[in-house]
Write a structure and sequence with these properties.
The chain is mainly beta. It contains one helix and nine strands; from the N terminus they run ββββββαβββ.
């Protein structure tokens, strides 16, 4: 099995014109991306083991962090500084080549934070709430 690292990951978000923009050159970390499913207890009297049934799936919430950049049409300040906007997101885990895994979803930008520190680069943190289905597939 092949192993991948940060140079292989390609992260794309669409802009206000719905055109996908590659954001991987701005993002340094993706935190908390962990889709889940709610379950309900279906254990009946007389059962000797608990039983559960899957219900609604949830894409959850995740954060992206990186260096602040206000490049006119493609920088994170332009793409992510749009609280309440729904954006298409694609995470290409092993590059964009044919047959490589990709996760696609719609997400709402719920928080955009600019960070500054003496002696360091300005940064950003954006929080995204997944809305609707998360699609796992392969690049064509």
């Amino acid at each position: 099995m092949a192993k991948y690292s940060s140079p292989d990951l390609v992260l794309k978000f669409d802009n206000a014109s719905n055109a996908l923009q590659t954001m991987s050159n701005y993002v340094k970390s993706i935190g908390g991306f962990a889709p889940s499913v709610e379950t309900g207890d279906t254990t009946a009297f007389g059962d000797t083991w608990r039983e559960h049934q899957a219900h609604l799936k949830d894409g959850g919430e995740f954060t992206l962090e990186g260096d602040y950049d206000d490049t006119a049409t493609t920088g994170p300040d332009v793409i992510f500084n749009s609280i309440g906007s729904t954006r298409t997101c694609e995470i290409h885990w092993a590059g964009t080549g044919s047959g490589k895994p990709v996760t696609s979803m719609e997400c709402i930008i719920t928080k955009y934070e600019r960070k500054a520190a003496v002696g360091g680069l300005h940064g950003f943190v954006v929080t995204c709430k997944v809305t609707g289905a998360v699609t796992e597939g392969m690049n064509p």
